User: Fold this.
Amino acid sequence: MSSDLEIKFPTIPYDENHSEEYHKLNTEDWSPFKGYDLAEIFIFAMSYAYANKLPRKPIEGRDKKLPPRGFDTQMRHMMRTLAIHEERNVKIVKDSNKIVKICAEYANAGFSEIYKKIKGSTANRAQILEDMIAEKC
Amino acid sequence: MSDEYEITSIKLKNYRQYYDQVTVNMIERDKGFTVFLGENGEGKSNLLNAINWCMYGKEPHTRKSASLPIINTKHLEEAPLESTCEVMVELMMKKNESRYVIRRTLKATKHGLEERDVDGSSVYTLDDQNGLLIPKGLEVFNIKREFDMLDGNSAYKPGNLNFDAHIMEILPENLSRFFILDGEFLENLFDKFEEIKKGVHQIAQVDLLGEVAENIKDIVRKNPKGLSEEIEELNKQIRNIENHLESRNDDGTIRYSHDLRWNENDGGKCYVASGEARLKDLKTDSENITQEYNETQQEIENIGAESMQKLSQDEKEQESEIDYMLKTNTNQECERVQNLVKKGPIIFLKDAISDAIDMISKEEDRGGLPNKIKRIFADDLLTVGKCLCGNDLHINHKARKNIENMRDRLSNDVDVDIALNIRFENKNALENYGNVLKDIDDARDKYETSNESYKNAQKRLKLIRSKMEKTGNNDHVELLVKRDNLRKTQENINREIGNLEYEIKYKKNELRNMQHSRSKLNVRDKRTRIFQHNRKIWEDTKTTIDGMVISLEEDLREKIQNTMTEYFKQIMYKDDFDRITINENFNLRLLKTDRWDVTGSLSAGERLFMALSFIAALRKVTGYLFPLIIDTPLGRVSSTPRELLGKKLPGFLEESQIILLATDTEYMAQVNKGEKNGKTMKELLNENVKTTEYRIRYDTKNRTSTIKPISTIEEHN
Assistant:
């Protein structure tokens, strides 16, 4: 068992108002995330928000939960990395609740943007993602 | 000596049109064929029903509109009120030296029978009682089934087997429809591939194994209660993925999407929502579209000129190239998307990653990391009882207290050591950052190149088709449009198949990883260890059974396919075909020597020969050697195959008893009416085999049928 899983990781919240859109991204043919886990959409939204300097957005409504198991070691490290950078404190890695809160706020900010971009695009699925990434390369 | 079963006689007592007792002796195979002649409605099909009822208690050859009860109406009328009426069918059979009697008797008490008026005549009101038509007011009180062996004239019960088991040995019910045949069934045999598959599965017990595998799957999916939260959660996710792959809801019911299946005759049926079940639906539709496409293509070729055929050939090549390109293209798009979904976040987080690496390194440099080693060191000092400076660390000594406090603080901070792992992973990510970008560029280039080739191929195809349209007449244009639409639908379905296959592969991989994690977690405690051990045994068993099912089915299909091809070559009047293939859905295809599928354009005669070949192959492969009883086989068959059937049937299935039921037109009229010395079916058969004919005659006044041998005089008349 890898060491990161020894630290208990809480469930990851996302805004209930985004629930249907998460589901659409996960199931619709036009979405590049079709067939992927919600966790992957979450991480993409979170990192997109960071790269685009979107302000963190607290979850306003009721929250829905993503199970931590969907977040593999690499994803958790990305979340911890962002939290260290954000808090300017390495010791934050032992506070999983705080890490998750920071990341959930970033994901919340990024999600609406990426959903809008994906839904409004006529490009093919890969091109939509590539365009988003290209802005930051 | 032959191992075939033969029916030596059939005795009917008050069965449907047959009043009182009617006994008919059948001819053994080495003495020829038995032929029953009668017009429609005189009682031919009810002979098939009688055999079926005697053996299985069912009458599958009854028309829905039939108004005759199972028990003879004259017998019913004659029976006094509250007396017992009886209907009985008895089959005498033999195999080698053994002789058997199979008998089924139904007894009922006649109360006041309900009647109604139909077109001015009074008929009994009938009740459908388990598939049998019984007049209202007739109370069935006994149905007796007997299976006896005969020794001389005395009968005895053989062994310990019950009636059903004996019948199962002779011919299982699900196979009976392939032996006791009516013309309509033969004609449409190949539209019933689902039924054929089911029947063949039952015969080979493949379905039984499949059920066992399904049950094991349920056992494997069940998890013990009271496991850790982590395992429970993992189980839930595993179940979700399994449900997704099997397109099931949590309650185990099938989950459907709103997308309509391609086949519009399918009663508006929708595709299942996801996973392998959806893939199966899509593949079935894709095959059906291919079949219709091939038939359309064949039509185009049939009415086309040589130039059209050349263009058709170019078109076919182009289409297969496009198929290949589409698949490659779809795969490359999926890979490209996966690359971006997985690696996009690394690109987005690049600055944060660099920054975090610096911060962790600084923390390490100032001695803040790793905490675990410092804690061990503190533990060592406390164990040895000496400080670094050489002072003893007595209990209650202030220095000892300080070190203990430091150790406790470090214990709390051990979790921070994970930052070193993060730094390691992040450094790797940055070192590979160039490759990440390169991978994205490469995936895009590969996709664009293949997409470009795909588009060019489509342009070439469009060019070929526009040439075809110019060459063709109106029929061509219409057919080309139809084919074009089929092609587009097929492309869409194939694209989805490609995506779905990729998704399934991805999900299965995810599932494997989760199952692996669960196994690791399970090892922690004894209870789950035992459960895991049991689960492993079940999983291994299921894998073995799945393998058996696949290999059994493949083996069976291959045997039927090869034997069928042999028989078909033996009986068919054209020789430009190569072989018959049967795919996993039991779709049968006849391929010509140029590998072109001609199944869709077969004539009624060719379909009849193919059906007979299939039935012959089924007999041989399954080993059930029951007589072949065919009712009205020549319905829509034209003169050439009819003539050929007359000539070839005697040599086909040389050892099997064959009983034919035919109309006079089928049997006694000249087959090739245009020819001066054209022969009847009887004459054609008699060139190679003797025939014994019976006449079934229906007396409208008495509403009863009789069966009598046709005398030589009647025959000449």
The beta strands of chain A are 12-15, 63-66. The helical segments of chain A are 19-27, 38-51, 73-87, 96-120, 125-134. The first helix of chain A runs from residue 19 to 27.
